[in-house]
Design goal:
Chain A: It holds the Pfam family CcmB. The structure holds four protein chains of four kinds. Chain A is mainly alpha-helical. Chain A has helices at residues 3-21, 23-43, 46-77, 81-87, 92-122, 131-157, 162-189, 196-225. Classes of the chains: A mainly alpha, B alpha/beta, C mainly alpha, D mainly alpha. At the C-D interface, helix 1 of C face helix 1, helix 2, helix 3 and helix 6 of D.
């Protein structure tokens, strides 16, 4: 079977696992919301919160990403399924794309909830003029995060100390997404008088990031998961 | 399949220490030997999961020292782990593993029937099954794969009498259809009756492999 | 000698730099000796 | 740097020494002696930066060397991944260079923040160059962690080579993102030709001696890695023999 067919199978399987186990809904979403509440405790100032809301939303996304990626690969290693996928002759590129796709879908749900939390808790206001930019930002940034998450999650999957290794490897890499997505979101929301036109250059960076890690991951995933 | 003086390393330890073994197509070979002798490693090596450190290994005409990926899609491995997704149902699991090798609906249904997975189990999540039922599910996934080389690690463990009979019949049918079968087992009486040849694995080497 | 303002910072940076390199070097040689003890002498292509 | 004294057990101080590395080590040591002499005592204070300029004689060379080291790691990793030049030697050079690079980058960060305290009144500022450097530091610490994951030498080499190339991919992205993030940053007062002759000479000594030091460290480190690989292989031989006794 070609890589795309495998990718669809793997993505459908991952989403079905999520649908049956409800780990994202019952555990990750509450965790992410809790992080948002903790930020409010730490900053303790309504104006500051509104000012930094875009950054906090993306920061909470990064933390949740770590959890979701761990879960995504725990499913594969719990009963030797990753080995079985390799013995099944499944192309690593297909596994990579499929797991990225499933991660993308889960992150999209997560981000919707976090954005809602920001509106409620941080008094973030959405403007009609920034909607196109906001949606584009989310698609571009989330795609990049999904690729990076799958790439490093696969590397750490079989390793000793994977729980600590994954954040060490992944957080420096996603820094450009944190910066770019935060700035673009600020522009879309009009935080501190920013206008949507300020945000579009950042979209370029986010797309470049997603493209590079998408291609890099498709090529390299096989040698990272191979024992 | 032909292994010559193969050494394979697992975490710095030579799990295989110069194993040589030749198996012809259609044979059912039983591997026996004490725990830690290297039976599991031998099976994983043949499946292309374990790297060949030294020596030569050719499986199904593919040189494992050059390309392990080529052999993988033609073998089926049932290891200690079942390779199942605990949150998915029996039906979902078998269908997923069948789909990865492009098996048809009918083949998938037939393989489930073959392993005696009754309809009432179809919609039960694997995580809620007993060890024996999980083993049956994993075997059904294996049957759906239509492998040319079957590698089974303690397949009888956890199965009830009916399950063992079904497994034996399945393996005989596969061998009759031209597939090669290698079974590692401690259940000598049962597996011995099944096997066309018995070899002993001791200290990472194969004895009686002539 | 030129009078030095901020002398603690300047000297501190030199001490940290040279000390760090020295520590690394000592550790590296210790590892080399430890490894070499477990090997026969002839297996050193560079000597 | 224990170059000249010989230990009692072996004729040379380190099993990784050769005549060439000894000469190189002596040259580096002499260079560093000069650097301390000129950097701390003989060169004058800068008009603007006063005595803070002395830190730059170690800060600038170590930053350059760190970047060079990571460049070498990237190139050796590519050489390993390319089938025609595949050799574990490249992997060891990549690992040695990354480790020395992390050392120099650590020195860069410490000396840089001490310099910043003098010149700007603060240890750290979020300008593009500093931020990129900090991220690079953490990235290569991660790379070194991946090298320690275990498996056969070939697995280690392949995995870490991929990681090194991913890091090369990441560096420009991080750099440009932080550059756009904080477009205003401190002027670099040093690089505008305001240094007089003796100051430039001190900086030059720093560059030369640190480069020699880098080469010397990488040669040794990579040989230590080779020794460790041989110890592994030998351990495998012994374990193989023991395993064969079992049967």
């Amino acid at each position: 079977m070609n890589a795309w067919g495998i990718a669809r199978l793997v993505a459908a399987k991952d989403l079905r696992v999520e649908w049956r186990s409800r780990v994202l809904i019952n555990q990750v979403l509450p965790f992410a919301t809790l992080v948002m509440v903790m930020f409010a405790f730490a900053l303790d100032n309504d104006q500051t919160l509104t000012r930094v809301a875009p950054g906090l939303v993306w920061l909470a996304t990064m933390f949740s990403l770590l959890v979701v990626v761990q879960r995504s690969f725990a499913v594969e290693t719990a009963d030797g399924a990753l080995d079985a996928l390799q013995v099944a002759g499944v192309r690593p590129a297909g596994i990579f794309l499929g797991k990225s796709l499933a991660l993308l879908a889960q992150l999209a749900v997560l981000e919707l909830v976090l954005m809602g939390a920001a509106v409620v808790l941080y008094r973030t206001e959405l403007h009609a003029g920034g909607v196109v930019l906001l949606v584009t930002t989310y698609v571009a940034a989330t795609t990049g995060l999904a690729f990076v998450g799958t790439l490093y999650g696969g590397l750490a999957a079989g390793a000793k100390g994977r729980e600590t290794l994954l954040p060490l490897l992944m957080l420096p890499v996603v820094a450009p997404v944190l910066i770019g997505a935060t700035r673009a979101t600020e522009a879309a929301l009009g935080t501190e008088g920013a206008t949507p036109s300020d945000g579009w250059p950042w979209i370029g960076l986010l797309i470049l990031f997603a493209a590079l890690f998408g291609v890099g991951g498709t090529m390299a995933f096989g040698s990272l998961i191979d024992e | 399949m032909r292994l010559v003086d193969v050494v394979a390393v697992l975490g710095g330890f030579p799990a295989l220490a110069g194993a040589s073994l030749t198996v012809e197509r259609g044979e059912i070979v039983l591997l026996r030997g004490p725990n830690g002798a290297g039976k599991t490693s031998l099976l994983r090596l043949c499946a292309g999961l374990l790297a060949v450190e030294r020596g030569q290994a050719t499986v199904l005409g593919c040189d494992l020292t050059l390309d392990r990926a080529a052999v993988r899609r033609r073998v089926g491995l049932l290891g200690h782990a079942n390779g199942l997704y605990a949150d998915l149902t029996v039906g979902d699991n078998v269908r997923f593993w069948g789909d990865t090798v492009g098996a048809t609906e009918r083949e998938i249904a037939a393989s489930m029937e073959r392993m005696g997975l009754a309809n009432r189990l179809m919609d039960v999540p694997v995580g809620r099954l007993s060890a024996g039922q999980r083993r049956r599910t994993a075997l059904a996934c294996l049957v759906a794969r239509r492998a040319e080389l079957w590698l089974l690690d303690e397949p009888h463990a956890g199965l009830d009498a009916a399950g063992r009979d079904e497994l034996d019949q399945t393996l005989r049918a596969a061998a009759a259809a031209g597939a090669t079968v290698m079974v590692a087992s401690h259940e000598l009486e049962r597996a011995g009756a099944l096997a066309s040849r018995v070899v002993e694995v001791v200290g990472g080497q194969v004895r009686g492999a002539a | 000698m030129v009078a030095m303002l901020h002398a603690p910072y300047v000297i501190g940076s030199y001490v940290v730099t040279l000390g760090g390199i020295a520590l690394y070097t000592v550790g590296m040689f210790a590892r080399a000796r430890k490894a070499a003890k477990r090997l026969p002498d002839e297996e050193r292509p560079w000597s | 740097m224990n170059l000249t004294s010989s230990s009692s057990s072996s004729p040379s101080p380190s099993p990784t020494s050769t005549r060439f590395t000894r000469a190189l080590g002596v040259a580096a040591l002499v260079g560093i002696g000069w650097l301390v002499l000129f950097g701390l005592f003989l060169s004058p204070n800068d008009r603007v930066q006063k005595t803070g300029v002395r830190i730059l004689y170690i800060h600038v060379p170590s930053a350059w060397l760190a970047y060079l080291a990571f460049g070498v790691t990237g190139l050796s990793s590519a050489a390993y991944l390319w089938k025609r030049t595949r050799n574990l030697q490249w992997d060891r050079v990549a690992g040695a260079s990354a480790e020395v690079g992390v050392l120099f980058m650590g020195i860069t960060l410490v000396s840089g923040s001490l310099w910043g305290r003098i010149s700007w009144g603060q240890f750290w500022t979020w300008d593009a160059r500093l931020t990129t450097t900090a991220f690079l530091f953490v990235t290569y610490i991660g790379y070194l962690a991946v090298r320690d994951l275990g498996g056969t030498h070939q697995q280690r080499a392949k995995r870490s080579a991929v990681m090194a190339l991913l890091a090369v991919l990441e560096v420009p992205l991080v750099h440009f993102s932080v550059k756009w993030w904080r477009p205003l940053h401190q002027n670099e007062t040093v690089e505008k030709g305001k240094l007089n002759g003796l100051m430039l000479f001190s900086l030059f000594i720093g560059l030369i001696s640190f480069t020699l030091l880098y080469v010397w460290l990488v040669i040794h480190r990579q040989r230590v890695l080779a020794l460790n690989d041989q110890v592994d292989d030998r351990g495998l031989d012994l374990a193989l023999a023991a395993r064969r006794e079992e049967s």
